[in-house]
Amino acid sequence: MKRLQNMQAVGVALVTAGCLSVTGLASASSITNTGPWSWNDITSHSSNNSSIWNNNNLRLANSNWQSAHTGSANVSGNTMAGNKMPWHPHHHPVFSWGGSGGGASSGDAHNQNNTAMHVSASNGSNNGGSWGNAGSNDGWSSINNTGPHSTNRVESSVSNNSAVHNMNTVYASNSNHQTASTGNANVSGNTVGGSTNTGDSNNWNNTAMDVSANNTAPSNTMGNWSAPLNASINTTGPGSSNSVTSHVSNNSTVTNDNHVSLSNSNYQTASTGSANVSGNTVGGSASTGDASNWNSTDLSVHLSNN
Q1: Residue 292, SS3?
Q2: Taking the model in full, what pTM does it have?
Q3: Which of 84, 91, 140, 150 has the smallest C-beta neighbourhood within 10 Å, fewest atoms?
Q4: Of residues 271, 23, 269, the one with CA closest to residue 135
Q5: What secondary structure does DSSP assign to 132-194, as a single string?
Q6: Measured between alpha carbons, how far is 220 from 199 in angstroms, rounded to an integer?
Q7: SS3 content of the chain, % helix, strand, coil (to 5)
Q8: What is the pLDDT of residues 169-226, one digit of tens each?
Q9: At residue 228, what are phi and psi to the nearest 5 degrees?
């Protein structure tokens, strides 16, 4: 018997987590008791930019090639034919003399392969992390008791930009080639010949491939990303110009780009040798063994973009 066995397990796991916190302006400002024709201005500008880039490029490849062959068994040119097993590097052929004549048989040839390939890509922990406080301008601003013909202005500007980009490229390939064959068994040219049998030839392959990609965008803890402006202009003189202005800009972008490619190739050949009993005065029987191939493949892909 000759047996080749190959078992492989490959696993790749990648975890990327992001948590960004942006603090903003929450100051209190005031202008009081200015003279006539004064120019009074309170201005606040806040810009918050956050970006998370996840680029996962995973490649798995597995190639398996197996071959199992048994030698030929031959009994010929004997007065009384004995039993002969195929040659083995650690054993000499065994002959059994006497009786009504023996036979020839070849051994079994087996190939077995078991491959497991797992890929897991996770971007973001704790539900994808979180965007921190976007820095709302929630301080108090006031202009009071200004003189006549004053120009009084309170202005607030807030810009919030967030971007999440996930790119997952997964390529998994499995190739399996197996060949199993038994040698020929021959009993011929004997006065009394026995029976001849060839061994069994078997191939077995099991492949499991699992791909999982999880892209979770950070949760928004910025509230409504607004800029609550608490401003007041009081007791200004005649002919004054007073204005309160608030500008808010919120932009959020989430991009998921997933590329998954799975490839499985299986090639199996199983053959038994020929069994021959011929040219004997008294001949026995001849039979060949079984030839079988078995293959199981499980491919699974899981993608989650939240």
Answers
A1: strand
A2: 0.64
A3: 91
A4: 23
A5: -------SEEEEEEEPTT-EEEEEEEEEEEEEEEEEEEEEEEEEEEEEEE---EEEES-SB--
A6: 68
A7: 0, 65, 35
A8: 888 888 999 999 988 888 888 888 788 888 888 999 998 888 888 887 766 555 444 5
A9: -65, 115
